[in-house]
Amino acid sequence: MGKTLGYMVTFTTYGTWLQGDKRGFVKNGKILEASEGLEQANKKMQSSEEVTLKKEQREIVRDAILQEAARIGENVLAIAVRSNHIHAVIEGGGKPIDMVVNRFKTAAYYALRNNGFEQKIWTRGYDKRFCFNEKDLKAKIAYVNRHGNGLKIMW
Question: d(Cα 115, Cα 13) in Å, to the nearest integer?
Answer without folding.
Answer: 17
